[in-house]
Amino acid sequence: MRIGILGGGQLAKMMALAGQPLGHEFVFIDPAADACARSLGAHRVSDWSGPDLVNQLAGCDRVTFDFENVPAESLATLADRFDVRPSPKALEVSQDRLAEKQLCASLDIPVAPFKAVDTRPELMGAIDALGLPALLKTRRLGYDGKGQYRLAHSEDLEPAWQSLGEQALILEGWVDFAHECALTAVRDAAGEVRFYPLTHTLHQEGILRFALSGSPANAPWQDSAEKIVHQIMDALDYVGCLTVEFFVTEAGLVVNELAPRVHNSAHWTIEGSVCSQFENHIRALTDMPLGAAHSRGSALMVNFIGQMPSTDMLALDGLHWHDYGKQARKGRKVGHATWVLEDFATLKRRADELTAHLEPSQVQGLTGLINAAG
Amino acid sequence: MRIGILGGGQLAKMMALAGQPLGHEFVFIDPAADACARSLGAHRVSDWSGPDLVNQLAGCDRVTFDFENVPAESLATLADRFDVRPSPKALEVSQDRLAEKQLCASLDIPVAPFKAVDTRPELMGAIDALGLPALLKTRRLGYDGKGQYRLAHSEDLEPAWQSLGEQALILEGWVDFAHECALTAVRDAAGEVRFYPLTHTLHQEGILRFALSGSPANAPWQDSAEKIVHQIMDALDYVGCLTVEFFVTEAGLVVNELAPRVHNSAHWTIEGSVCSQFENHIRALTDMPLGAAHSRGSALMVNFIGQMPSTDMLALDGLHWHDYGKQARKGRKVGHATWVLEDFATLKRRADELTAHLEPSQVQGLTGLINAAG
């Protein structure tokens, strides 16, 4: 099949790396001339709206996307002509933090307390209702921690409002959590679902830094996470990979965000599970049987932000390298490495071998993650 | 780095699939407009000789090849301008069955008894010396069983000579073997070597049909195979992956052939080992640290010859699909699947699940292989 992907970043690239052996071809729609997926298929230099999009995708049997800020109306238009998976509805819900939380609430799935905020009086009312600290976020177009402010004291309101006001916002009540985790699952058009093991995640400055599978701290939460993700997938008649990010709290799991696509927290599945999220996403899109999602051992993924480190790290047996082929730029995800070991205890014992290759701030983060994991 | 590959077939494709995540770019030189690697890099439609080859490869940091019938003199010329790995010398030796056997003999490595044959009297003399049955082969340009005749009786001579005469030949004495196996290893420019586990191979009509890792029948031969491959690699100052095919006889291992490149018998390493032959070949070419070659469980690779079967087979958990994107054609390798299971006993017990998807001739071959394996 020919698969059109809106977006030509690293997620599109890894979809194509997984999809080419399945016999598929790829077309990437991306306005950046140096979109990093371009070496794996046809690259159309174009944005994701406008009447020409249909022509750009001519001949595609399926259309999907590699990030969720594709205009939902573009996708809805495309859905008249192409088999778009996941559906525009799933994208629309996840593009709007309010709709996302309302969906969860309607399914009795725990989320942070929330209030829609369009005006300054609404903000004051929301703070009265939810208390401080709280998070003021744009309803749309946020990613990697962009478009959000933490309000700890009343004096934080004014700068946040100055920066974020004049657009649809949401205030989220503070959630005290022990750690964060994410569940990735894949659902095919017939409704069959496969769940990956929970990923223990660590963010710094709003950007995912580390992801760990096989974390003992997550084991008790696998079943309830699967139940929640299954509910959401069925409610959206979802096809493809979906990742749900959770807070682990004393009261149980609280849904933080949905990502209706392949997701950074599950990059470790490329080598750490039988069939990766990328391959399973493509299998689901193209009506191939789903692959096994169970994992081998414990996998630790390190994101490379800004620039790639030295390849000396490759000397670690079981370490896998993913250089996205992107220009170095501050704050940009340019690659990752995944280190797969037989179990978490081995990973914990041998963590020093990896940290020898990392920056001090990374070492601190990783040490915290491993200690929290078990 | 930019890596130029002479040849743009499935081996080049799988090298690029492994090499792109390492941050490398690829240029494929192949006269076929539909060379299947073309979706993974720049494709120059050209043969492998002529003065323009240097221009076609302009900007490449390394040059390698995906099949051994590249003219050795072309490669030698390229070696003046590019860092060619493995070296033209390694290619030259493996292109000539006589030179290959002479190299082994000089290292005291067992090979089938052999005689060079250029004339009809030499053929008669060689038969007198080696007896019948014997194999009459072209010294050069044979692959997948092409360019060879089995001589069982004196009446087989004339048709074989009519077909093969007028070129440099070799007569090989018959080797009685229990089964065939192959060892793939990778060596870097500093002389470090990693060995994959022995692969149990099954050929039909001269074409590899099945390859199995974790075969109990091979376990006793791992050490002696490694010793032989190490000797050959050091003698050739080899850089990259080399596969040596063996006969397992009562007297021990006998070298059948060398393949100075990534090899079909080790395709299972993509999912069945920590770091695949393709990735390790690219790592060695580009002076990255070598990856671990040990395997996970037992892996069975099935070649798809002529045309791809139904993708229903993908419903088997742990089965991985490789559609090379080639036009169907009788006798052509168009893809393969690899099924990875926890150990050989499990594979043997569950073999029926796979054979349900295979043709009767394949089932017969696979059953024979599994019974021979243990």
Describe this structure in words.
The structure is a homodimer of 374-residue chains. Chain A has helices at residues 10-19, 53-56, 72-79, 88-95, 97-106, 120-130, 157-164, 222-236, 269-272, 277-285, 344-355, 360-373; strands at residues 2-6, 25-29, 42-44, 62-65, 114-117, 134-138, 148-151, 169-173, 179-187, 193-195, 199-204, 207-213, 240-249, 252-259, 298-305, 319-323, 333-341. With 374 residues, chain A is an alpha+beta fold. In chain A, the strands form three sheets. In chain A, strands 9, 10, 11, 12, 13, 14, 15, 16 and 17 form a nine-stranded antiparallel β-sheet that branches. A four-stranded parallel β-sheet of chain A has the order 3-2-1-4, covered by helices on one side. A four-stranded antiparallel β-sheet of chain A has the order 5-8-6-7, sandwiched between helices. In chain A, helix 1 (10-19) links the parallel strand 1 and strand 2 (25-29). Chain A binds chain B through residues 13, 17, 20-23, 25, 39-41, 274-275, 283, 288-289, 291-292, 296, 308, 311-312, 314-315, 317-318, 320-323, 325, 335, 340, and chain B through 13, 17, 20-23, 25, 39-41, 274-275, 283, 288-289, 291-292, 296, 308, 311-312, 314-315, 317-318, 320-323, 325, 335, 340.
